[in-house]
Amino acid sequence: MADTNNYSDRRLHPRIDHGMPINVMADGYDFMSTTRNVSCLGAYCHIGKYVPPFTKLSIKLKLPVKKARVSKKIEVACKGVVVRTDDDPTGGFNIAVFFNDIKPVQQHRIAEYINQFIPR
User: What is the mean pLDDT of residues 47-51?
Assistant: First the structure.
């Protein structure tokens, strides 16, 4: 995980430890959560029910954006797949999601959001 205060992770698609609203839908379940980290290729978040790896998901992220002193949320919708599920010692599960079906414009919106937190 990247430390955004001392950024040393040089991935092609950087990841930041940042919480933003995420809606995860799988097998008739609808989970509202907050990301623990995010990149334009995937996210890591906490959910209350076990979802096994390779489960296909529908994802909606809400990117908080400020323009001209006005705050709003831009929604990014895509498809993903669970690549890892970890037990959380405090209850529930942490899942790593790979965005396997995301439009380039949606991916670009996430990348723009992330880039504002990465020192140049």
Answer: 93
